[in-house]
Design a protein that fits this description.
This is SGNH/GDSL hydrolase family protein. Pfam families: Lipase_GDSL_2 (PF13472). GO terms for molecular function: hydrolase activity. Keywords: Hydrolase. This protein is of the alpha/beta class and 226 residues long. The longest helix has 21 residues. Helix 2 packs across helix 9 and helix 3 runs parallel beside helix 4. A five-stranded parallel beta sheet has the order 2-1-3-4-5, sandwiched between helices. The relative contact order is 0.16. It contains nine helices and five strands. It has one domain: Rossmann fold (3-Layer(aba) Sandwich). Helix 4 links the parallel strand 3 and strand 4. The two termini are 13 Å apart.
Length: 226
């Protein structure tokens, strides 16, 4: 039977393409299918899997953001899984927007928030035969060194010089949270990095690199379950 995988994340799951943004900011430019890591993952895994894209620009883990309404990941997570049930695996990659100083800006707290999401998934019955889905918790890619010059407004939002330093701590704390929650873990920063346009979002080449890493991990997860 085909495996259903929900990819729940922010703009790097949605496919935000900084080089495709219009000057008047009238809409968000998005990489097309075949470029986004989610659709590349679908191609790599084949017809035995169904990849569901659930990315949203500016999504946080558990916090409301007054400047971006309806971005709280926790409030949408369970309805999302109810919609797509039965779900075999959730790939959960959030945290970068939580670096904003008005939201959290504190990496250990951000990792704990990710753990809240994992536990929300594990406490549900949205998996096969009324069980909970498996969870792959992903620590996000790093904030790029060029963020200050590439995107100064976002640089300020993310705590200026603390942005990259805090993102470097993602893997340590997210891995510890995954161990505590007894779920799978992947460090996205080992495989991909932000593109040069805004030093925050994946470019086309890095979408593919991340898809390769996810494909290998997904095969490992389901091979272990056989």
């Amino acid at each position: 039977m085909r495996k259903t995988i929900v990819c729940f994340g922010d703009s790097n799951t949605w496919g935000f393409a900084p080089e495709l943004q219009p000057e008047d900011e009238s809409y968000f430019g998005r990489y097309p299918e075949g470029v986004r890591w989610t659709s590349v993952l679908q191609e790599m895994l084949g017809t035995g899997y169904r990849i569901i894209e659930e990315g949203l620009n500016a999504r946080t883990s558990i916090w409301d953001d007054v400047t971006w309404p309806d971005r709280n990941g926790l409030t949408y997570l369970r309805p999302c899984l109810n919609t797509h049930a039965p779900v075999d695996l959730v790939i959960l990659m959030l945290g970068t927007n939580d670096l904003k100083v008005r939201i959290s800006g504190y990496t250990p707290e951000i990792a704990r928030a990710a753990g809240v999401l994992v536990k929300a998934i594990q406490s549900g019955n949205d998996g096969p035969e009324g069980n909970a889905p498996k969870v792959l918790l992903v620590s996000p890619i790093l904030v790029g060194e060029e963020l200050e010059t590439a995107a100064p407004d976002i640089y300020d939002e993310l705590g200026r010089e603390n942005a990259r330093k805090n993102s470097k701590e993602f893997a340590k704390y997210f891995q510890a949270q995954a161990a505590q929650c007894n779920c799978y873990f992947l460090d996205a920063a080992k495989y991909a990095e932000p593109g040069p346009v805004d030093a925050l979002h994946l470019d086309a080449a890095n979408h593919r690199k991340l898809a390769v890493a996810f494909a290998e991990k997904v095969r490992e997860i389901f091979q272990e379950s056989i």
